[in-house]
């Protein structure tokens, strides 16, 4: 069901909007929940108060999913945020056989008295949830994507030797937002020494020199190894302004040389069909798992738009996901101005 996860990130980001609470109560109509791309960073939690009204048993007419199943699913998405509160207020049959409508009220301890509604639907097989998009449902909604990445992601790697905590960056060397995300990636390498970090180059057709940069990168890695690839990528990002019709070839040759590789040998390698096949396989992996926009970071299968998530929140999300998967990490204060 890989294509059913195609817009998983959009769904997660839609759910994440509930952290930025609007001053509203549950509307009578099915008003769409506003969208956002990054949860607010947590602040010191206020005294815990139940902000929700009593539930009405008449609003629970569907046999599945259970309240416990919904709570487990939401914990997998939101458990990193100690300020977030929610309550399942309805699981209702719909006219579509086996499809249930789930209604959740969400609050934030930092905004007393304010709640926001979240509505999504679950499929008859109990494996998918649908809001604006489709994603896997259940207590371990990222398990299938994690397994696929462990089996298929084989880009340049650094960090730990094991994949218990696997951070896979899907990026494009001709993408300015990907360039800006590298400061976060560098900090994650320092803050999570137990993580194995992979780079999967997913060149966008909208970026004219992305494909050539990816091909050259494959060949730099092939001839000089993973460390050389990361040196090459740093050089391309640093000189990204030179990816123009007048200077792109020279810019890429300079980056190849900076990584210790021979530009002529890399150019010959980049022209080979098997090199293109390597890049195509990475693009296919990104498409299969729904990483349709870059930069994207998969944390044990949990896809996050790394450029939109504040760094401290990103750390919390990684630590929480690691804990969900049995990996213990110890967060340290970030000694930087990363946002």
Question: What's the gist of this structure?
Answer:
The chain is of the alpha+beta class and 339 residues long.
Walkthrough of the structure:
With 339 residues, the chain is α+β, with helices and mostly antiparallel strands. It folds into 2 domains: 2-138, no CATH class; 144-324, Glutaredoxin, CATH 3.40.30. The chain has 10 helices and 10 strands. A 5-stranded antiparallel β-sheet has the order 1-2-3-4-5, with helices on one face. A 5-stranded mixed β-sheet has the order 6-8-7-9-10, sandwiched between helices.
List keywords for this structure.
disordered N terminus, elongated, 5-stranded mixed sheet, Glutaredoxin, 2 domains
SSE layout:
Layout: H1 8-16, H2 67-78, E1 84-93, E2 100-108, E3 115-122, E4 128-130, E5 134-136, H3 143-152, E6 157-159, E7 166-171, H4 176-191, E8 196-201, H5 210-224, H6 226-238, H7 248-258, H8 263-270, H9 273-289, E9 296-299, E10 302-304, H10 311-324
Parallel strand pairs: 7-8
Antiparallel strand pairs: 1-2, 2-3, 3-4, 4-5, 6-8, 7-9, 9-10
Helix pairs in contact: 5-6, 5-8, 5-9, 6-7
Radius of gyration: 22 Å
Number of helices: 10
Helices and strands, in order, run as HHEEEEEHEEHEHHHHHEEH
Average pLDDT metric: 86
Low-confidence stretches: 1-11, 16-40
Distance between the termini: 35 Å
Within CATH, the superfamily of the largest domain carries the name Glutaredoxin
Return the CATH architecture of the largest domain: 3-Layer(aba) Sandwich
Q: How many domains would you count in the coordinates?
A: 2
Percent of residues in helices comes to: 25-40%
Strand order of the largest sheet: 1-2-3-4-5
What is the CATH C-level name of the largest domain? Alpha Beta
């Amino acid at each position: 069901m890989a294509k059913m996860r195609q817009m998983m990130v959009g769904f997660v980001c839609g759910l994440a909007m509930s952290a930025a609470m609007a001053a509203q109560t549950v509307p009578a109509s099915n008003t769409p929940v506003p969208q956002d791309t990054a949860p607010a960073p947590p602040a010191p939690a206020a005294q815990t108060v139940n902000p929700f009204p009593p539930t009405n048993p008449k609003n629970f007419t569907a046999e599945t999913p259970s309240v416990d199943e919904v709570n487990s699913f939401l914990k997998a998405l939101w458990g990193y945020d100690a300020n977030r509160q929610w309550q399942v207020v309805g699981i209702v049959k719909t006219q579509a056989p086996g499809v249930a409508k789930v209604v959740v009220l969400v609050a934030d301890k930092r905004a007393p008295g304010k709640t926001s509604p979240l509505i999504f639907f679950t499929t008859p097989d109990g494996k998918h949830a649908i809001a604006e998009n489709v994603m896997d449902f259940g207590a371990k909604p990222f398990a299938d994507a994690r397994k696929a990445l462990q089996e298929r992601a084989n880009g340049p790697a650094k960090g730990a030797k094991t994949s218990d905590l696997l951070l896979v960056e899907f990026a494009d060397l001709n993408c300015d937002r990907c360039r800006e995300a590298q400061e976060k990636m560098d900090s994650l390498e320092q803050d999570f020494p137990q993580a194995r970090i992979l780079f999967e180059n997913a060149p966008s057709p909208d970026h004219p020199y992305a494909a050539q940069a990816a091909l050259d990168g494959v060949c730099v890695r092939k001839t000089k190894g993973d460390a050389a690839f990361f040196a090459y990528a740093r050089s391309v990002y640093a000189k990204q302004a030179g990816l123009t019709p007048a200077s792109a070839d020279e810019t890429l040759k300079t980056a190849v040389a900076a990584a210790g590789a021979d530009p002529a040998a890399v150019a010959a390698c980049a022209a080979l069909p098997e090199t293109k096949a390597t890049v195509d396989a990475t693009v296919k992996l990104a498409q299969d798992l729904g990483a349709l926009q870059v930069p994207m970071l998969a944390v044990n299968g949990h896809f996050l738009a790394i450029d939109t998530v504040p760094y401290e929140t990103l750390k919390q999300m990684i630590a929480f996901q690691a804990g969900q998967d049995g990996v213990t990490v110890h967060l340290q204060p970030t000694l930087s101005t990363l946002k």
